């Protein structure tokens, strides 16, 4: 995202995404998994709503929503097709 933009919060508003971007690549933040999952969802939604054609995220090992490892759950959730 452009310098000076804020990370979308967990509320219903997704925040602003750059309208001139064709591709978005984001790196997950660290923190409580539930909050990270909300941030991922908001980034994906903001990119989609602003017309970004492609998006990608730096993933983690063994991304799987059913994993016992908390961060694998958040990556797995993020990587599910929408």
SSE order and pairing:
Layout lengths: L22 E5 L5 H17 L4 E5 L11 H9 L4
Parallel strand pairs: 1-2
Helix pairs in contact: 1-2
Question: What is this structure, in a nutshell?
Answer:
The chain contains 2 helices and 2 strands.
Q: What would you note in describing this structure?
A:
The chain is an alpha+beta fold. It contains two helices and two strands; from the N terminus they run βαβα. It has a two-stranded parallel ribbon. Helix 1 (33-49) links the parallel strand 1 (23-27) and strand 2. It is elongated, with a radius of gyration of 13 Å. The model is unreliable at 1-12 (pLDDT under 50).
Descriptive terms for the model:
82 residues; alpha+beta; 32% helix; 12% strand
**Unreliable stretches covering 5 or more consecutive residues:** 1-12
Number of strands: 2
N/C terminus separation:
21 Å
Q: Estimate what percentage of residues fall within beta strands.
A: 5-15%
Indicate the overall shape. Answer: elongated
Determine the structural class based on helices, strands and strand pairing.
alpha+beta
Q: Summarize the helix and strand pattern as letters.
A: EHEH
> How helical, in percent, are the residues?
25-40%
How would a textbook summarize the main sheet? 2 strands, parallel
Question: Going across the major beta sheet, what is the strand order?
Answer: 1-2
Radius of gyration equals 13 Å
Overall residue-averaged pLDDT value: 75
- How many H/I helical runs? 2
